[in-house]
Amino acid sequence: MKKIKFLSLLTLSFLMAATTFAQTADEIISKHIEAIGGAENWKKINTVKQEASISVQGMDIPVVITFVHNKAFKQEFTVMGMTGYSIITVDSGWNFSPMAGQTKPEPITADELKYGKDQLDLQGEFIDYKAKGHSLEVLAKEDVDGTECLVVKINRKSGTESVFYFDPKTYYMIRTKSKVVTNGQEVESVINMSNFQKLPEGIVMPFTMESSAVPAPITVTKVVINGPVDESTFKVSQ
After folding, report:
1. CA geometry: angle at 61 spanning 193 and 118, to 5°?
2. Distance CA 97, CA 82 (A)
3. Whole-prediction pTM value?
4. What is the DSSP annotation of 58-90?
5. How far is it, in rounded angstroms, from Cα 87 to Cα 64?
6. Which residues contact 90 (CB under 8 A, 6 or more apart)?
7. What digits encode the pLDDT tens for the residues 134-147?
8. 19-73 pLDDT per residue, tens
9. CB of 142 within 8 A of CB of 123?
């Protein structure tokens, strides 16, 4: 009898643990969304234009990043008088890097476009994530530069996945990891974020980003929210 009672309690404990585990992802994401300004404020965001710079070997490289929610993204950079860019839209993507020897823009691959399109959700893929067809799962905590982070994995409707690391004190996202396809090969992309600032629109954004694909940190110097963006911004030009 005692053994049966013990097994019943053990089963109940497992069920309670499973329920807590399932709730934890929503709890973490809810606190994160609140920490960065709340869903209501983010749902008002339709365009973002950032001016930034990358300091490499004593040279400041200006970068302009332009987003239109669920429509298009462009990152433009100028090195030694040469301007290159990356463009992602809902149906195409292009890269042009004259400093790397390219003489004309080149289309990205289908795999690169698949991942790139996931980044067009400017308002945040965690907001209404279930309605968007995504699912979340909590992973084991991990240390990020001395911070034991809460870790959540997103399984997107498109089939791509990313892992997000949250500071448990602020609930800011301080790292992301994703598998991306570059030059036909799958590589891990890691982005660290810091220097979070609250904008007049009530949202919070990181002003310093360190990407495994970029040789130095990207420092944001100016942000314009919901400013006009001409459609020609995303036209392929040389």
Report:
1. 45
2. 8
3. 0.86
4. TEEEEEEEEEETTTEEEEEEEETTEEEEEEEES
5. 12
6. 70, 71, 72, 117, 120
7. 999 999 999 999 99
8. 444 348 999 999 999 999 999 999 999 999 999 999 887 788 999 999 999 999 9
9. no
How far apart, in Å, do the first and last CA atoms of the chain sit? 80
Nearest C-alpha neighbor of 88 from the set 62, 61, 60, 117: 117
Distance (Å, whole) CA 167 – CA 28: 10
Count of all residues that appear for the chain in the document: 238
Question: Which amino acid appears at position 236 of this protein?
Answer: V
Contacts of 116 (CB under 8 A, 6+ apart): 73, 88, 93, 108
Going by their DSSP bridges, the two strands 173-182 and 106-107 should be labelled as unpaired
DSSP calls for the chain:
-HHHHHHHHHHHHHHHHHHHHHHHHHHHHHHHHHHTT-HHHHTT--EEEEEEEEEETTEEEEEEEEEETTTEEEEEEEETTEEEEEEEESS-EEEE-GGGT-SS-EEPPHHHHHHHHHTT-TT-TTTTTTTTT-EEEEEEEEEETTEEEEEEEEE-TTS-EEEEEE-TTT--EEEEEEEEEETTEEEEEEEEEEEEEE-TTS-EEEEEEEETTSSS-EEEEEEEES----GGGGS---
Dig out the tokens for 44 from the structure: 């008002």
Residues linked to residue 205 through DSSP beta bridges, in sequence order: 197
Query: Which domains does the chain possess?
Result: 2-234 (2.50.20)
